[in-house]
Amino acid sequence: MPLNIVVCIKQVPAPEHFSKITLDAEKNTIIRGGIPSVINPLDRHALEEGLRIRERLSGRVTALSMGPPQAREVLEEALAMGVDDAVLLCDRALAGADTLATAYSLARAIKKLGKFDIILCGNQTIDGATGQVGPQLAELLDIPHVTYANRIEFVDGSFLVVRRVIEHGYLDVNLQLPALICVLREINQFRLPTAIGIIEAASKEIKTWNCGDIEADTEYVGLGGSPTRVVGVFKHKLERRREILEGSPQEVAQKAVHRLRELGGI
Amino acid sequence: MNQGNEVWIWAEQRSGRLMEVSLELISKGLELSQRLEVGLAAVLIGDRAEELAEELLAYGVGKVYLMEEARLRLYQSDVYANIMANLIYEHNPQIILLGATTIGMDLAPRVAAKVKTGLTAHCADLYLEEIDGRLQLVQVVPGFSGNLMVKIACPQRRPQMATVRPGVMEKPNCMEEGKGQIVRVKPNIKEEDFRAKTIDIVEEKPVGIPLEEANVVVAGGWGLQSAGGFGLIEELANILGGAVAGTRPAVDANWVPEERMIGQSGKTVSPNLFISAGASGAPHFTTGFLKSKVILAIDQNPKSPIFEVSDIGIVGDLRKIVPCLGEELKRIL
Question: What pTM does this model have?
Answer without folding.
Answer: 0.89
